[in-house]
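Please check the following for our workbook:

***
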Amino acid sequence: MSSYADRLAALRQQLKEDRLDGFVVPLTDEHMSEYVGSYAQRLAWLTGFQGSAGSAAVLPEEAAIFTDGRYTIQVRQQVSPTEWTYQSVPETSVAQWLQDNAPNGARIGYDPWLHSRDWVRQATASLAAKGAELVAVKRNPIDAVWADRPEPSKARLIVQSEELAGKSSAEKRHDMADWLSKEGADAAVLAALDSIAWTFNVRGADVTHTPVALAYAVVHADGTADLFTEGEKIGDDVRAHLGNGVRLHERSEFASYLKSLSGKLVAVDPERSVAAIPQALEEGGARILSRRDPAVLPKAIKNATEIAGHKAAQARDGAAVSRFLKWVEDEAPKGGVDEMIAADRLEAFRHEHGDVRDLSFDTISAYGPNGALPHYKGTAESNLPFKTGTLYLVDSGGQYQDGTTDITRTVPIGEPTEEMIDRFTRVLKGHIGIATALFPKGTRGSQLDSFARRPLWEAGVDYAHGTGHGVGAFLSVHEGPQRISPVGSSQAGGDEPLQAGMILSNEPGYYKTGEYGIRIENLVLVVERSIPGAEKEMLGFDTLTFVPIEPRLIDVAMLSDAELKWLNDYHAEVLAKIGPQLMGEDKAWLERQCTPLSR
């Protein structure tokens, strides 16, 4: 099938053969992952959409694709309006659209291995209002028509040593066993890939840019566990590392194993487990305890070893990014540089500065109008050459075995306009607002989000994404449960209390459609703060990312004395941490970029 129109037509024919009147296509896998392996890229295959969040619904005569504010422009560039209508989340939802558009009495298919149980309940209720039915399929109809669908990865697992993890897998499972005992439960299902990697101190290469392996696990109240993954993925080193407390099974045996837990009380995370998991447990006679995955919070609160490793990775990464920014400043005005050349050059610098295992996500290398797409993903068709007179936004990160990095910088190609400088300075003021925030224990990310937006709101502008996401330790670059985002936004999770040891991004931005984008992103660590006379236990942020913030885009007159001091202190620390790693012209450039600013 040479076109997306052909693929949609083939799916509709398959639905007719399966006696279905529609089908729902999420962008996820059997583990509710944000980033998925190539074998699970069903939404991209069907529609052409390359974003990291979205879904689609197909009916006999209509089809709709659903994205949030981050992808308003991108989805229109990548998905044909001839076959698809564009739907904005959270203003609408797949369930609501189906209720409005599905025929009376329709049978709408869904894959129970790709949706949460809560979604199934909501969609069932919405369709019932039309006399329609939600039907679980045994075989995904897209898989039936996707002739050259890739096979799941066969990459072997690797050991994440205790020297890097800071805690043994046996200790982590013991902690989970204590939690299960307190809950009165017999076992907990782990379906999220990063939870499994963290719990067993293993990593993998089954998902691009995220070092996880396709697996399921069940941890028991005695501290033992059953791990389900392809046998060929387990080498002798991993087998010895896991020890006798972990029983190994083929991944294909997971569903039947769940059905064997008759009479057990089993904890299942409703947010991180697909509907097929509780369904299999109930079919086998187990009882379900709806609780958050017991790895989620301990994984988010980094231990001292993980924090030290992250800082070491950030120092190497900062040197690579600094050299890259100097290269952009030198080479872009000459011509011959485009977005893809720049992205490749940045990756090369990372390989020169440390044992980088992978990128932590596809680099957002966005010139001019492409920078106005917050989650732009460059292609050969969208690739733009650098010209003078606008901005270049680069959002990138590396996967190092001691830490995961994520950084965004925005630089001018040629002379910036007054508007660009104004907007950049407002974004910087918002960034400093988060970096310097002090808040009592128990504060949620949603309560801090407006700290970053106020300088933009004062000019009547805003940005349509969260201000910060959690980051893993040689794991997912987007890690929950902590976020800095408005409650009720399309990026949910801003309601988790922040705790010392959590790592988040700090990334306010501004985007002018069709012209340019601005974002300044550092990673920050939640730490305890001592305030004389304080009546509450207080927290704040330590900045972890050290790369110069472009001085040519800063209007010093717009900064308060405290903001200017923060900026100059930050650049002094950049010079101290990154300077010793650079030589010659690279070091001279860094020194110029870090020169203290004054009024």
Summary: The chain has three domains: 4-145, 158-293, 301-593. The chain has 19 helices and 28 strands.
